[in-house]
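Board notes (copied after class):
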Amino acid sequence: MLGKYTSHSIEETAEIARKWLKEISVKYADSNTALVVGLSGDLGAGKTAFTKAIAKELGITDEVTSPTFVIMKQYPITQSSTPWKKLIHIDAYRLERAEEVQVLGFGELVADPKNLILIEWPENIGPALSSIQAYNFIQFSVPPDTDTKKREITFQ
């Protein structure tokens, strides 16, 4: 699902997230490592809204919020139609060096193919992501001079 998509609402963002998840689930079903996805964009650009939509689609009923202060949250996935058993949500906004993510057991999390890892602010830990085989990057932006709900989501 490469390319740029425009969302005008939370519902449209959720639909984009559903389509992406369906495609990526097939593509990485036989991966031997976790799927790691960097979610980049300014504050309020839609990173957490996208993550909430993914969590809902995976059958997660817990409230999903950005882990800005705790850095990482983990959610069990009970849905059997996905290759993953755990959603790991990391917010690297407050991290200053790539080494800081290692304290979370990042190497072990990435090594487990049953993990789907979504990382907000991946640019803050770029060197820790450089050697990951199954890495995807999604850019979120608010176009200038548009309505406040419009978002552009670019899959790279």
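Comment from the instructor: The two ends are 8 Å apart (CA to CA). Strands lie at 3-7, 35-40, 72-76, 86-91, 115-120, 135-141, 151-155.
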